[in-house]
Amino acid sequence: MTEKDGMNKDAINEEEMTEGSESQRKKTKIVKADVGDTIQIKRGIHKGKKGKVLIVRENSVIVEFGKNPKTGEPLKTVVNHKNYKLVK
Q1: Which of 79, 72, 85, 74 is closest to 55 using CA atoms?
Q2: The dihedral of CA 45, 50, 83, 57: what is its sign?
Q3: Are 34 and 86 in contact (CB under 8 A)?
Q4: How far is 24 from 28, CA to CA, in rounded Å?
Q5: What is the tens place of the pLDDT at every residue in 16-41?
Q6: Is the Cβ–Cβ distance between 19 and 70 less than 8 Å?
Q7: Partners of 67 in the beta sheet?
Q8: CB 79 within 8 A of CB 37
Q9: What separation, in Å, do the N-terminal and C-terminal C-alpha atoms of the chain show?
């Protein structure tokens, strides 16, 4: 066995350890909203506002939280799953 082979075994062991700790991080469950749910924003400039979920993405949701009084256009924003809570 050469030094190079020994290094490869160490690299494999480090990767296995990394994968194990990565799976432990994924165990934390984030509650995701579904389309049509009402959420309350916890962070950012729209903190405290409630809105209706329009689209659900992998890391975020798109929310409509009002209408522009002058133009009547919907006000929308993107919110990370960690930055909102579901309203019952």
Answers
A1: 79
A2: negative
A3: no
A4: 8
A5: 444 555 555 555 677 789 999 999 99
A6: no
A7: 74
A8: no
A9: 63
**Token code pair at residue 39:** 């959420």
Rounded Cα distance, 64 and 77, in Å = 7
82 is written with which tokens?
A: 């960690």
Beta strands in 2-87 (DSSP E): 38-41, 50-56, 60-67, 74-80, 84-86
What contacts 5, CB < 8 A, 6 or more positions away? none
Encoded tokens for 21? 């700790």
Q: And the tokens for 79? A: 């919110």
Indicate if the alpha-carbon torsion angle 49, 31, 27, 22 is positive or negative: negative
pLDDT at site 88: 81
